[in-house]
């Protein structure tokens, strides 16, 4: 049995915040605004998994009205979503994600991001693809107002799980 999910997220740039993407601190002059650490890539992946399981979205489980999640490390958020996935007897088949940002350049960090995301997802790095693109200076991404990300994920039934 396989299930497919799609995730999409946007965060605006903000001064005096670190840029955290894929669980890594990426050197840049600005970070992203958000209730949590605003890790747009991990939010996208979490939403794609919840979508595949028809469980809703991250706002349902981690509401931005709850102070408990203020400045939350999104690695913890995604790990909780992975637990829900395992509870439903699914594991990652593969994931393909794209980050849309005019700056910074993510190419030098992509392999570290893949390792980071694969480790949270408890899957092999060969199951995780992450891409980056500019929007050729068009739109809010092109004007460097924010970063957006999209992901598709394929889940497969967990063969080694009882039940
Ligand atoms: N923030 C970004 C955006 C792009 N890249 C890399 O550059 C390549 C070319 O980007 P275009 O938007 O001109 O297609 C892209 O394929 C990425 O490898 C990047 O590292 N960081
Ligand atoms: C992660 C949460 C919760 O801290 O906050 P944000 O960092 O604002 O992220 P977003 O993707 O807008 O929505 C999910 C929120 O519930």
From TrEMBL:
Quaternary structure (record): Homotrimer.
Protein's job: Involved in the biosynthesis of isopentenyl diphosphate (IPP) and dimethylallyl diphosphate (DMAPP), two major building blocks of isoprenoid compounds. Catalyzes the conversion of 4-diphosphocytidyl-2-C-methyl-D-erythritol 2-phosphate (CDP-ME2P) to 2-C-methyl-D-erythritol 2,4-cyclodiphosphate (ME-CPP) with a corresponding release of cytidine 5-monophosphate (CMP).
Residues binding 4-CDP-2-C-methyl-D-erythritol 2-phosphate, per UniProt: 9-11, 35-36, 57-59, 62-66, 133-136, 140, 143
Binding annotation for a divalent metal cation: 9, 11, 43
Keywords: Isoprene biosynthesis, Lyase, Metal-binding
Pathway(s) served: Isoprenoid biosynthesis; isopentenyl diphosphate biosynthesis via DXP pathway; isopentenyl diphosphate from 1-deoxy-D-xylulose 5-phosphate: step 4/6
The name this protein goes by in its record: 2-C-methyl-D-erythritol 2,4-cyclodiphosphate synthase
Cofactor(s) needed: a divalent metal cation
Database matches in InterPro entries: MECDP_synthase (IPR003526), MECDP_synthase_CS (IPR020555), MECDP_synthase_sf (IPR036571)
Record-annotated 2-C-methyl-D-erythritol 2,4-cyclodiphosphate synthase domain positions: 2-155
Alphabetized GO MF terms: 2-C-methyl-D-erythritol 2,4-cyclodiphosphate synthase activity; metal ion binding
Gene Ontology terms describing biological process: isopentenyl diphosphate biosynthetic process, methylerythritol 4-phosphate pathway; terpenoid biosynthetic process
Enzyme Commission no: 4.6.1.12
Reaction(s) catalysed by this chain's protein: 4-CDP-2-C-methyl-D-erythritol 2-phosphate = 2-C-methyl-D-erythritol 2,4-cyclic diphosphate + CMP
């Amino acid at each position: 049995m396989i299930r497919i999910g799609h995730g999409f997220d946007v965060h605006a740039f903000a001064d005096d915040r670190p840029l955290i993407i894929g669980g890594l601190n990426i050197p840049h002059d600005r970070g992203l605004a958000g209730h949590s650490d605003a890790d747009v890539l991990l939010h996208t992946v979490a939403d794609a998994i919840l979508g595949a399981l028809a469980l809703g979205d991250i706002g349902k489980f981690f509401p931005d009205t709850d102070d408990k999640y203020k400045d939350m490390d999104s690695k913890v958020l995604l790990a909780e979503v992975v637990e829900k996935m395992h509870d439903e007897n699914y594991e990652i088949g593969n994931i393909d994600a794209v980050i849309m940002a005019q700056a910074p350049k993510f190419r030098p960090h992509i392999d570290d991001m893949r390792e980071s995301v694969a480790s949270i997802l408890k899957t092999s790095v060969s199951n995780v693809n992450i891409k980056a693109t500019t929007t050729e200076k068009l739109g809010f991404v092109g004007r460097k107002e924010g970063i957006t990300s999209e992901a598709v994920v394929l889940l497969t039934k967990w063969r080694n799980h009882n039940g």
